[in-house]
Amino acid sequence: MSISPPAIPKAPEILTEGIHPSTHCRIKRALDVLGALVGLSIMLVMLIPLAIAIRKDSKGPILYSQLRCGLNGKTFRIWKFRTMVVNAEHLKGTVKNQAKGLIFKNENDPRITRVGKFLRSTSLDEFPQFWNVLRGEMSLVGTRPPTLDEVAHYQPHHWRRLQVKPGITGEWQARGRSTIEDFETIVAMDLYYQCRWSVGYDLAIIGATILSVLKRKGAC
Questions:
Q1: Using CA atoms, how far apart are residues 174 and 218, in angstroms rounded to an integer?
Q2: Which residue from 89, 153, 193, 216 has the highest number of Cβ atoms inside 10 Å of its Cβ?
Q3: Residue 160 has what DSSP assignment?
Q4: Range of the domain at 150
């Protein structure tokens, strides 16, 4: 039995009220391109051993893709190294959601493979997203890219998160990672990022993210 994909949510007029300066900053875009090229180069070095580990641990594709909502609600296909069993979406209803609001999280999600836990704790699963950054669909720093079914339940203030490009990292990833379990807290942090944004602030978040990953702070 096939499951129909969620309808693509229609962006409200609130997203046309103004253009966030980060979306047309040439320095930010140059930083994104440079970071994406470095990230993809690192990924190519790790690709073969990671591919072998993923396939040996669990049958299925090496990469996982999913439609997400980006800038102004425009959809794009995000890429990650697969960290769950192949039928994870069908099994979602069997797993308890420990988060509050429009996000799904379970600290001991049984759908995550052994290699997947390692990939998530080290953020290695995120490396294919550098391709999304190079294409201009994402940025190195931005908001968490929501799924279509999440956005379908958005309230007006939630849509403001989409006034900037989604990022590989962002305010909540750098400051809390998986320890934050309330969607409204994530929204507040994303809006705080929009208010504080500057190229220098992006660099600070990138630095904080690297430290969090190295220390496994708040790792999934």
A1: 9
A2: 193
A3: G
A4: 23-214
173 CB burial (10 A radius; 0-12, 13-18, 19+): buried
Listing DSSP states for 42-76 in one string gives HHHHHHHHHHHHHHHHSSS-SEEEEEEE-GGG-EE
What pLDDT, in 10s, does the model give residues 23-61? Answer: 999 999 999 999 999 999 999 999 999 999 999 999 899
pLDDT confidence band for 2 (50 / 70 / 90): very low
Residue 115: CB partners within 8 Å, gap ≥ 6?
Answer: 53, 54, 56, 57, 58, 83
Q: Is residue 168 part of a domain?
A: yes
User: In the chain, how many domains are there?
Assistant: 1
- Within-domain flag for 2: no
Q: Which two tokens stand for residue 207?
A: 């630095």
Q: Does residue 220 lie within any of the structural domains?
A: no
Q: Which residue has the higher pLDDT, 64 or 7?
A: 64
Per the CB < 8 A criterion, the answer to whether 124 and 50 are in contact is yes
Task: Tell how strand 63-69 and strand 75-81 pair up.
Answer: antiparallel
Its pTM stands at 0.86
65, 67, 75: which is closest to 11 by C-alpha? 75
% pLDDT > 70, the chain: 88
Give 59-72 pLDDT, tens digit per residue: 899 999 999 999 99
Residue 172 CA to residue 140 CA, distance in Å, equals 14
User: Burial, 215: exposed, middle or buried (Cβ in 10 Å; 0-12, 13-18, 19+)?
Assistant: exposed
Confirm whether 201 is domain-assigned: yes
